Amino acid sequence: MKDTYQSITKPSPEVLFKDRNSKFFGYAFPIKSEEEANEHIDELKAKHHKARHWCYAWQLGKEEENFRYRANDDGEPSNSAGMPIYGQIQSFNLTNILIVVVRYFGGVKLGVGGLINAYKTSAQMALEESDIIKRTIDEVFVVKFDYPEMNKVMQVIKQNNLNVIDQKLEIDCKVFISVRKKDAEKIYSKFDNTYKVEITKLRD
């Protein structure tokens, strides 16, 4: 079971690609939502307010079957900008990422082939300057129990080196744990088979 994905840790440095007087500034951003992507695009439109095009592509989701993406040519000929940028996201096997390429028109038309190459290269350059990280796909569970069962629960957590992300230890206790997807079923069974302990999956 594949339970990892790749993204970038922080925004890339600005990169610049030139072709026949046109300038293409490339940027990559880690994102968690479409709204976050739109905020970065708006910031670049304000920064480069004299540019002609702000073309971009983003992808969200941790698993291939749940990926969502968008590619935008922003006035360039169809599929000459957004899809070449998106192709680099796929080529580097990344998700939860936005790439924007800002174009200043230099007075010479590049043709569709020239545009595809310029947008692809600018996106590639931005990704080559980015810090790429592999992350695990985790599932979150809440384990509920009464105080006398505390030792049993903590023993399972310790033995399996589980990540406790929150806990509320009162008369009735709740411990929130994060588990790698490939181990989730096994860990669920351990708690589910423990007397007087209840486990519930919260989210992927």
Short description:
By secondary structure, this protein is an alpha+beta fold. The chain is built from five helices and eleven strands; from the N terminus they run βββαββαβαββαββαβ. It comes from Christiangramia crocea.
Structural class: alpha+beta
What is the multimeric organization of the chains shown?
A: single chain
Helix content: 25-40%
Spatial separation of the terminal alpha carbons: 15 Å
Major β-sheet annotation: 5 strands, antiparallel
Q: CATH architecture of the largest domain, please?
A: 2-Layer Sandwich
| Residue-averaged pLDDT | 94
Model regions low in confidence, pLDDT < 50 over at least 5 residues: none
Fourth CATH level, the homologous superfamily of the largest domain: Impact, N-terminal domain
Using the coordinates above, name the CATH class of the largest domain: Alpha Beta
Strand segment count: 11
Rg over CA atoms: 23 Å
**What is the count of distinct domains?**
2
Discrete helix count: 5
Strand coverage percent: 35-45%
User: Can you list the strand order of the major beta sheet?
Assistant: 2-3-6-4-5
User: Remind me, CATH topology of the largest domain?
Assistant: Ribosomal Protein S5, domain 2
Shape: elongated
GO biological process, one term: regulation of translational initiation
GO cellular component, one term: cytoplasm
Domain Impact N-terminal: 20-127
Protein name: YigZ family protein
What structural keywords apply?
Alpha-Beta Plaits; four-stranded antiparallel β-sheet; 5 helices; 31% helix; single chain; elongated; alpha+beta; 204 residues; Ribosomal Protein S5, domain 2; 2 domains
